[in-house]
Write a structure and sequence with these properties.
The protein is built from 4 helices and 14 strands. With 276 residues, the chain is an alpha+beta fold. The two termini are 21 Å apart.
Length: 276
C-alpha cells in the first residue's frame, strides 16, 4: 500500500539536559516500570502480564461506556485472547508538557470504532464455510449480540497526543488536541537509523495485544522504541496474517532528532492477498 504523508508535531526549542537514567523496577505481580530521562524528554513505560478474567471484565465495561458516550454500539465484541492491559509507554516533552502515549486500551478502542463501521470487511477463511464452524460462530454472535465485527482485530491505532495530566499517564486532555500537520521537509533520517555503530541508550519492547484468530492466523500489536544519543525512534506495528487469505501490516513510526523543532510521524499500510 502507498504510504501516507509524513506529519510533524511542532514543539518549542529547549536547553538540553544531558542526564540519562534508566531503571526497571518490579512494582507487583510481574508488572515492571521503567523511566528514562534524556535531553529534555522523559520516557515512562510499564510492562505487565496478560489481563485476568476479572480485569478483562473491567476493561469491557469501560469500553462499553466509552462507546455509548460516543454514540457507538455499546455491546463489546469478543476481545483479543491476550491483552497486555497493564503495559504502556508515555513519552513526555518536559518543557511543553506534551505527551505521546500508547497502550492496549487505546489500540482496542480504535479497533472497536473501525469494527462498528466496517464489520469483518468480508474476510472469510476456509473453515468459515463448514456448517459445524458456522453454527458455533452464529451461536457466539447471538450470545454477544454482535452480528458482524472485525474478528481480525485490525487497528490503525497510532497513539494519543495530549498534555501531561495527573489523572492518567495516557490521558488525552480536552483543550489540548494533537497538532499534527503535513510535513514538507526532510523525513526520517534513514541513514542515521541504519547505522550500527550508534549505541542504544534505552529500549522498550511491549506487546499490547495478540490473538491466533481461532488457529486461522495471527493478529499482533507490538511497540518498540529506542533512544540513541542524537534521536529516538518508535515503531508501533499491527501485523495481521489470515492463513490462505491475506497478510497486512500497519506501521506508525515516531521520530525525533534532538535539537530539531519537530517530532515526525510516518504511517504506512501494506497488504498482500494470499493464493487460496
Amino acid at each position: 500500500g502507498a504510504p501516507s504523508a509524513a506529519q510533524h508535531f511542532a514543539k518549542p526549542r529547549l536547553a538540553h539536559r544531558m542526564v540519562a537514567a534508566s531503571n526497571g523496577v518490579e512494582v507487583s505481580n510481574g508488572v515492571k516500570a521503567s523511566s528514562f530521562e534524556y535531553k529534555g524528554w522523559r520516557f515512562d513505560s510499564v510492562s505487565g502480564p496478560i489481563l485476568s478474567t476479572c480485569e478483562r471484565g473491567t476493561l469491557t465495561d469501560k469500553l462499553s461506556a466509552t462507546a455509548a458516550s460516543k454514540g457507538l454500539p455499546s455491546i463489546v465484541p469478543p476481545l483479543p485472547e491476550a491483552i497486555f492491559g497493564h503495559s504502556y509507554l508515555t513519552m513526555t516533552h518536559e518543557a511543553s508538557g506534551r505527551t505521546f502515549s500508547f497502550d492496549a486500551a487505546g489500540a482496542i478502542a480504535c479497533w472497536m470504532r473501525e469494527s462498528a463501521h466496517k464489520g469483518s470487511g468480508g474476510i472469510r477463511v476456509t473453515t468459515a464455510s463448514l456448517p459445524s464452524w458456522k453454527k458455533v460462530a452464529d451461536e457466539q454472535d447471538l450470545a454477544m449480540g454482535a452480528s458482524d465485527y472485525d474478528w481480525t482485530f485490525s487497528t490503525d491505532y497510532s497513539g494519543t497526543t495530549g498534555a501531561e495530566s495527573p489523572l492518567s499517564p495516557t490521558t488525552e486532555v480536552e483543550g489540548a488536541p494533537a497538532q499534527w500537520g503535513v510535513h514538507t521537509g526532510s523525513g526520517l533520517d534513514m541513514a542515521l537509523l541504519r547505522r550500527r555503530d550508534i549505541p542504544i541508550l534505552h529500549f522498550v519492547d511491549l506487546t499490547l495485544y495478540e490473538d491466533d484468530l481461532g488457529d486461522n492466523g495471527e493478529s499482533v500489536v507490538r511497540l518498540r522504541m529506542r533512544v540513541m544519543p542524537s534521536c529516538f525512534l518508535l515503531l508501533l506495528r499491527h501485523a495481521l496474517r489470515v492463513d490462505g487469505v491475506l497478510i497486512r501490516q500497519h506501521d506508525t513510526r515516531v521520530f525525533h532528532k534532538f535539537g530539531s523543532p519537530h517530532v515526525l510521524r510516518d504511517r504506512r499500510l501494506g497488504e498482500a492477498r494470499l493464493a487460496q
